[in-house]
Amino acid sequence: MKAFFTILLCFFSATLLAQRNIRFEVRNARTGEAIAGATVTAGSAAGRATNDSGVVVVNAVTTRQTVTVSAVGFNPASITITGTTGDRVLVNLELSEKEEEAVIVSSTRTESRIENLPTRVEVLGYEEVNEEVGIKPGHIGSLLSDVAGIQAQQASAVSGNTEMRVQGLPGKYTQLLRDGLPLFGAFAGNFSILQIPPLDLKQVEIIKGSSSTLYGGGAIAGMINLISRRPVAGQFEKTLLVNQSTLGESNVNAWLSNRQGKVGYSFFGGITRQQEQDVDGDGYSDVARSRSLNLHPVIFLYPNSRQTLLLGYNAFLEERTGGDLLALRGEPNVTHSFFIRNETYRHSGELQWENRISPQQRLQLKATASWFDRFINNNTFSQPFHAGQLSWYSELSYLHQTTKHDLVGGVNVNGQDYGSVIKPLPAESYSTVGVFLQDDWRLHPKLTLESGLRTDFVNRYGTFVLPRISLLYRLSPVWTARVGGGLGYRIPTVYESDVDEREYILLTNSATKAERSTGGNLDVNFHKRFDEVDLAINQSFFLTSVQNVAELFRGNGTPELLNVPDGQPLETKGSETYVQLRIDEFEAYLGYTYTDATRRYMPLQPRQPLIARDKFAAVTGYEFTSHFRASLEASHIGRQYLEEGRQTPGYFLAAAMIRYDWKAFSFVLNCENLFDYRQSKVESLVAGGRPHDPVFRELWAPIEGRVANVSVRVKL
């Protein structure tokens, strides 16, 4: 018996000696970030979870044992532990195929996943953009208006110009970019949203609030960065789209792209034809007649696996005419002679060079130049107004990533120059040299700090120092919070989207100070998957204050741009709430935006005109089969104040869409403004004046009424 116990004791002692504690560190294979909550299982023992640093200590045998490591959103990994395995084991998990489709944001220059950014970025991904291609193929105005906190409103009853108002601020305060390069501004900024088709885009990235630290002046309300599609190796993409609407709009768009070896290309071509329409029967066009051509060829060169060179050209040509229907149709008389014609010619070139020195280092050069030529004619002009604008932007940046930091630094030079054939334009030409530095610092697996500083030297307006800071805190795997703020500025210009073209020959610019802004935001986000259910809830708050506000004053009959005299700010504050739910093939979105926009410098009429204080939105969609999908949209736009102080009624809008895919074809039937709500049903759009020189009311609601369209897209 004594010998039996001795043998048993030796057995257990040997077993205990064959076990030891091993420290496992689990990280994201792509980013190197620690993965909290990963499960490490040794043999048949119960699994243990990693802590916030991605670390767990597991007791394993030293002979030979298989250890499995798994985490939500990652492919599991198996490791064999032997007697030669050290006391510390690093495990890198690869993202699962589903997670690989997660959104990568380029606007902050670090190419980070959206959930890892301290700056709040809203992204309309390829799925949303691709669906918009069949709904509104002519431009992205409808796509952007679906975003909470963005209000799209037609600014001119004659030309149809539309501006995007972000968080209660006029459209002039939003910076528009394409692939990180500023697009339209000042004199060239009119009709900008109406000239960008969605077929040419991969995704849209939106940053709200003062963001001039990123790309310089103009981003007081925020910035919208349009990300272009690029060719994919071995895929020859050929898409043709034809669209027709009940409002007389016809579109034909084509997209081609291919990449073979070291050379690739993409090409977009689009033609739009819109017939003039008088929806309310008052004799004036509610929809202007327009003809446009858009061409965008790009060449991609890949000298080696690390470098990419892009050379692109874009041409946009358009003629747009609105006014009295008899004048538009070639039957004018003394009474019916009113018209406004805009002819625009835009030519731009771009160059982008990228050198990925290593997986953690990138050197990038970007440059663009654009010439914009515009003719404006009216029945009251003695001769057409003709002016041009030359704009340029160049940037050199360097990115260096480490385990704790993403560092970006660079320099840019940009500017614009004006010239007029008929009348000297207000002196608005300027040039800027800017330097910037940004650091995303991962202080802790739960805490990331993003800080940035830009200094711009503007030859006519002085020096602008623009700090910016944002903080991301992961409260748990499903809860995150962000807080941030920064400064912005904008060079004042008289050429705004809400200026009547008849006033262009009278405009003067007496604004001597740049507009400056201070802004902050806070948001809390919840995101969790329950088997087939995906639920996201976001609550955000914002505050922006604009100083040295420049506005057009018409006291003596001549429009003059002036900084407001008493120095009081334009202030907007509010909140955005949205809930997004996906269950199998069903998805729903509910949103509410509250906006309080106040002009402190106008005590008698302090409310910022044409901004709805309350906006509700709801979207539902269901994919019945892999070939058939339908969606419904509804929104309620609350009361708005007009410049005169009068309040408008709130109104309800609804839309519906069905899409059917068959082989290489995609058919879309869409209807906007189902219940045909129009401002002209409430009041006349003509406020006074004479028939040949009318005065129109401010636009606060749709004027084109119910519109249906049918589009057919084929992938050849």
Automatic annotation (TrEMBL):
It is a multi-pass membrane protein. It is found in: Cell outer membrane. GO terms for cellular component: cell outer membrane. It holds the Pfam family TonB_dep_Rec_b-barrel. It comes from the Bacteria. Residues 116-222 form the TonB-dependent receptor plug domain. Keywords: Cell outer membrane, Membrane, Receptor, Signal, TonB box, Transmembrane, Transmembrane beta strand, Transport. One of its GO terms (biological process) is siderophore transmembrane transport. Residues 1-18 form the signal peptide. PANTHER family: HEMOGLOBIN AND HEMOGLOBIN-HAPTOGLOBIN-BINDING PROTEIN 1-RELATED, TONB-DEPENDENT OUTER MEMBRANE RECEPTOR. Belongs to the TonB-dependent receptor family. This is TonB-dependent receptor. The lineage of its organism: Bacteria, Pseudomonadati, Bacteroidota, Chitinophagia, Chitinophagales.
